[in-house]
Amino acid sequence: MLTVRSSMKEKLLQLIRFGWNQALSCMFAVVIFAAMALTHFVELPFIPRYDFLLLVCIMMQWILIRTKLETIDELKVIIVFHLIGLVLELYKVHIGSWSYPAEGWLKFGGVPIYSGFMYASVASYVCQAWRRFQLTITGWPPPVLSIGLSAAIYLNFFTNHYIYDIRYVLMIALLPVFGRAVVSFTVGSRAYKMPMIVSYLLIGFFIWIAENISTYLKVWKYPNQEAAWQVVHWGKIGSWFLLIIISVIIVVELKRLKETLNHSGKRSDVIR
What we know:
Layout: H1 2-25, H2 27-41, H3 49-66, H4 72-94, E1 107-108, E2 111-112, H5 115-132, E3 136-138, H6 143-159, H7 167-178, E4 182-187, E5 190-195, H8 196-216, H9 236-262, E6 270-271
Antiparallel strand pairs: 1-2, 3-4, 3-6, 4-5
Helix pairs in contact: 1-5, 2-3, 2-5, 4-5, 5-9, 6-7, 6-9, 8-9
């Protein structure tokens, strides 16, 4: 009986450690959501809502770099994903997939500049979690496959309005490409393993929950939410599932490139 209790206590402590490190890794996203909630319930007198959110995002990014919670290399990754997200936002808003109803000084093509930081916060999470959980990946596919799949996923977000949506084909393609990829992570002193595809799905699900919170706070709206808020369609989990793959691939391939350059062209099968 004592052994069972000790085992359950250890599992509970591990769960708390895991949750705490996850929360720390989500700092950027948490600050953005706090600012969203504040501007939803409090009307700002001197600055439009979207511009205040942009200011908060810039300040938070500065704090992360200043306190060395993020490195300059990680900042480069975050900037890349910010630009990727902003281009996607401009296109999706242009064709009416969703809209930003509030006013903003720095709003172009109906898209506030701060919106790119929502995508950047995902990249920030990946970078932070990588360090806090001491991630290593084995079985990662060759660059031609991972980068090619990433490009196909991103392109499909644009072409699916004009030609056949191949997202399900891309999901099936994940099996041969990432079927062998396993991520190892450490919580406390114990190591765990998880298939990469499962980790993509879990992150995509939690981003979908975050999207529901964001639309409830009226930061942006889907067409079916114009009259009254509704839960974001569950099919969006698939979209975020694919989008997080792009984010992870960018981080991994840049890490692998750096490791290759640092080791005179020798590439390791284990990505740290």
